[in-house]
Specification:
Radius of gyration: 12 Å
Structural class: mainly alpha
Strand content: under 5%
Order of helices and strands: HHH
Amino acid sequence: MAYAISLNDDQWNLVRDLFETDRGRPPVIPRRQMVDAMLFLCRTGCRWRYLPERSGPWGAVWAQWLRW
């Protein structure tokens, strides 16, 4: 289920190159899912621990936020 905050396919295609690389090991959680989770956080102002389950483990999203 997509939220109004999630990127649609056209929007994702515009920014995909910024987030997906061929370096390192393959991500456990897809990058698009990570970006959608971060957009959800920015839009709603919720705490990291209250991310929806569809976003994956909040700790993984937080760690990726720190790396980016």
